[in-house]
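Dear colleague,

Thank you for sharing your sequence with our group. We've completed the structure prediction you requested, and as agreed, I am returning the results in plain text so they can be pasted directly into your records. Please verify that the sequence below matches your submission; if there's any discrepancy, let me know and we will rerun it promptly.
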Amino acid sequence: MTTIGFIGSGHIGSQVARKAIENGYDVVLSNSRGPATLQDLVAELGEHARAATREEAAAAADVAVVSIPFKAIADVPVDQLAGKIVLDTNNYYWERDGHVADLDDGTSTVTAQLQAHLPESRVAKAFNAIASAQITSDGLPAGTDGRRALVTASDHADAADFVVKLYDEFGFDTINLGPLSESWRVERDRPAYGMVGDVAAITEALARAQRTL
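Please find the predicted structure tokens below.
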């Protein structure tokens, strides 16, 4: 059974964990406050969930989900995630995270920053442009007319393929933007950010995105 390790188990992380359990994954949860603060969530999720430190969750993971404030990416364990697929749900809010010049001037992307921090991991963008509650409420069976589409991007094909698989299991279609250099199209304040729509609608919104705001 595949184990998904969570670096951050807040609004997005906990919802992804719920759907992961529903779809047959084991989960190991962590946050910045310690395993004891996650016991209620572990009790809710049941026998296929446990709480751990960030380092322990990263080490236990076959695939990891990073869902923390962007300003905290330096705290993401590096050695324990080497060689692994890592899903990045993060968004850049300069009001919270402080200004990052490469993001402000459009020469980098949020997920490329995490990839740089994790040079031996295979990072893919995932779940950054959906409200947390909608992760467990908006999924529909494959082939359903109007099925909601979510976006991914990665410099590693197997990482993007895993996101496609996970999205489908959770009830969503996928638009793959290709490399991380294109992932700005679904970042904060772009037309597709938070948008509810099918593949055609989201594709059109992505095409309207401007590189700098």
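Summary note from our side: The mean pLDDT is 97.

Kind regards,
the structure core
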